[in-house]
Amino acid sequence: MKINHAALGGLLGLALVMSTAYAAGPTDPQIAAIVVTANQVDIDAGKLALTKAKSPDVKKFAQLMITDHSGVNKSAVELVTKLHVTPEPNPTSRSLQKGGDDNLAALKKLHGSAFDQAYVDHEVAYHQAVLDAVDTTLIPSAQNAELKTLLVKVRPAFVAHLEHAKKLQSELGR
Amino acid sequence: MPGVRSLLQASAAAVVSLVLAGTAASSAATNSAPKAYKVIMLVVGFDPSALTVKPGDKVTFVNNDLFPHTATADDKSFDSKSVAPAATWTYVAGKPGTHTYVCIFHPNMKGTIKVQ
Lengths: 174, 116
What we know:
The complex is a heterodimer of chains A (174) and B (116). Chain A is mainly α and 174 residues long. Chain A is built from six helices and no strands. The mean pLDDT of chain A is 90. Chain B contains one helix and eight strands, in the order H-E-E-E-E-E-E-E-E. Chain B has a four-stranded mixed beta sheet, with no helix packed on it. A four-stranded mixed beta sheet of chain B has the order 3-8-7-5, with no helix packed on it. The relative contact order of chain B is 0.19.
């Protein structure tokens, strides 16, 4: 895997922040901010890939990321609005945002097949990191039952995205 | 009194015939009435993923997910196009045959409808 260093640093940062920032786990407002940021970061990467990717299959994947993660964010925003929860920026959401910005900056310098490879490599690592965070921190920490249910409901989509990205990764590597 | 006996036998036969005819009519009505089925669309898969129906039966796909999905037959016999979250789409079974289908957005979602 030829993942760029800036993006890798961001993902390692996510794992580190998740494990050290919350002695008692993030609160529901913090989880809401993490969920919205995590989805938005992937939507932004997908939008860039739609304009720059060379492979039609990578473009299709990018469109799927935009559609699915927008769907999650729509549901998340509707839920926090209903629950009168205001998403609260925190070390994890800021780390995700910075990792996303660094990834976009690195991807913007690439073209053609190199772009496709770097975008898909990052998608594999990103979805794995987000899944780990969902399993080890977000679902166990969520207090509100509806927020927990939402996280449980979106998890299979992240698994499907990860498998899809891995398949693309192996096809691009041929 | 053979006349009375014959009459009784004829009456019994008529009753049996009527009962049989009624059963047959009722059975025919059951067989011909189209049935309605429901398939839930989730990113983990279609539920149920395999259905056996008869021509004319209705299969309603219900998107209970946060994402749009499709039910698109590999043999092009039906295609829901994009079904939005909370929306539904109904397929009316056509000619007999086995149709495998997928969600074109999430190819891990696969199902089969057998029309017989």
